[in-house]
Amino acid sequence: MNALENDIATILITKDEIDEIENRIAEQISEDYADKNLLLLCILKGSVVFFSDLMRKITLPMQIDFMKVTSYGKGSSSTGNVRILLDLHREDFSKVDVLIVEDIIDSGRTLSTLVEYLKMKGCRSVRTCTLLDKPARREVQFTPDYTGRLIPDEFVVGFGLDYAEKYRELPYVGILKPSVYTKNESMD
Ligand code: IMP
Ligand code: MG
Fold it and tell me: Does 87 participate in catalysis according to the annotation?
């Protein structure tokens, strides 16, 4: 057992449940993008695990690409200023139907900013897919096109999601014990 598992209060979504969620979403995407030119876009780092599952479950030809963004202010809440750390370097924006794959939507700022950015770049279409959504935390109106699971306002880790760069490798989504981040928050 990974020693980090001692910091998990409860397992919110098991590996098997995530597998079913992914099957459902991948099937829907495979239907919806059958006549499109799919570019599956991974938002690093959090969505990498979900993304790598989806790309193998979607039964269509596709391209993949990667962006990295950050909201200022690390820790257990995001603050809203979105900055691009790794950008796309392509010349075929007008030919691709981009599907952004995100780990979790919180305030909604990351995805609403990215959608606007990719539309501005001239992408033929831009849609969004998220494994998790915390609607209670929304600060800007945003509705993803594909949602894995709505979750309550708890800080979760695992399956790619981190707290202070830890816990990404856990094979499920778990609620982090609040004692972990109240103890460390001042050090961020
Ligand atoms: P938004 O821009 O506020 O919607 O923030 C989305 C980003 O915040 C995600 O990509 C995560 O990096 C981070 N985030 C929000 N909630 C959580 C959480 O519960 N656990 C881990 N990361 C989170
Ligand atoms: Mg993230």
Answer: no
Angle at which helices 15-32 and 48-57 cross, to 10°: 50
pLDDT of amino acid 1: 83
What average pLDDT does the segment 139-156 reach? 97
Q: pTM of whole model > 0.70?
A: yes
Which residues crowd ion ligand 2, with CB under 5 Å? 46
Closest residue CA from atom 20 of ligand 1: 156
Q: Per-residue pLDDT tens for 86-126?
A: 999 999 999 999 999 999 999 999 999 999 999 999 999 99
CB of 104 sitting under 6 A from ligand 1: yes
Alpha-carbon gap, residue 126 to 120, rounded angstroms: 10
Average pLDDT over residues 156-184: 94
With the most atoms of ligand 1 within 8 angstroms of its CB, the residue from 68, 78, 138, 142 to mutate is 78
Ligand 1 site-directed mutation target among 72, 106, 113, 116, most atoms within 8 Å of CB: 106
Q: For the beta carbon of residue 142, count every other beta carbon within 10 angstroms.
A: 19
Structural domains in the chain, CATH included, are 16-151 (3.40.50.2020)
What ranges in 65-161 are assigned the alpha helix state H?
A: 109-120
Flag whether pLDDT at 25 surpasses 80.
yes
